[in-house]
Write a structure and sequence with these properties.
This is Nucleotidyltransferase family protein. The chain contains nine helices and eleven strands. By secondary structure, it is an alpha+beta fold. Strand 10 and strand 11 form a beta hairpin.
């Protein structure tokens, strides 16, 4: 199809000519200007796939270097079955005593690492995507026990340890505060991973705190969980008003 001119008319303005083209997107580049070619080996333009590619690269380097680790954050939730709704980075947990070894492994693999203003993580960047290497999760040091509870799962065809659903939810609940109390990410996780989460443990660890308690109450009202699931109480004869509890 040959190029053609269209005319846009905005209220109170003179008509403005805009050139369209048969080129993808319908916009022709300025005369004499060619779009730069993507660098060799560049990650896919799709942001979701780019984060997955970065995740796989980091996991391969950490597996090769030896210190225990586990995938965390939104990519870990994806590994357990949630839809891909990645934020702006991929997160990995390592113990504080293994942080230097893990950083060296990533640097030796060609990933640029840098100290962050926060004293509980180190940041990196690969293929335009951010990497968080975390050694303190929700103000608590990453422990051997936490990493031992991780399960090995395939993340876009690469096997790696992934934090358990209970530990993922636990870290999200521990991070709730007056400055961050958005349940928007927590609710889909609770709905989809309900049967994989140890609600009694979370009740024991968080019910005394106002924001996690509010979230538990929301889950009960929405019938995502039942009170008996998190307390072990006998629900015989109970109703939604609390009688019989």
């Amino acid at each position: 199809m040959p190029d053609r001119e269209t005319v846009r008319v905005e209220p109170g303005r003179r008509p403005v000519a805009a050139r369209t083209s048969s080129a993808p997107g319908g916009l022709a580049p300025p005369e004499g200007v060619t779009a730069p070619a993507p660098p060799e080996g560049a990650l896919p333009k799709d942001h979701t796939q780019a984060i997955l590619e970065t995740t796989k690269r980091v996991a391969a380097l950490l597996k090769r270097s030896g210190p225990p680790f586990a995938l965390a954050g939104s990519v870990a939730a994806f590994a357990h079955g949630l839809p891909a709704r990645f934020q702006h980075d991929t997160d990995f947990c390592v113990r504080p005593e293994d942080a230097d070894q893990a950083v060296k492994a990533l640097e030796d693999g060609g990933i640029a690492m840098r100290r962050a203003p926060e004293d509980w993580l180190v940041k990196g960047r690969s293929g335009g995507e951010e990497i968080d290497l975390i050694f303190e999760l929700a103000r608590r040091p990453v422990s051997t026990e936490l990493l031992e509870r991780a399960s090995v799962k395939a993340v876009d065809s690469v096997w790696m340890p992934v934090l358990s659903p209970t530990d993922l939810m636990d870290s999200r609940l521990a991070a709730l505060c007056e400055h961050y109390c958005d349940f928007g990410d927590l609710l889909p996780m609770a709905r989809m991973l309900r049967e994989q989460i140890d609600w009694k443990r979370l009740e024991r660890d968080h019910r005394a705190l106002p924001l996690p308690d509010a979230f538990f109450h929301l889950l009960e009202r929405l019938r995502v969980i039942e009170r008996a699931e998190i307390t072990g109480a006998d629900m015989t004869g109970a109703d939604m008003t609390g009688e019989g509890r």
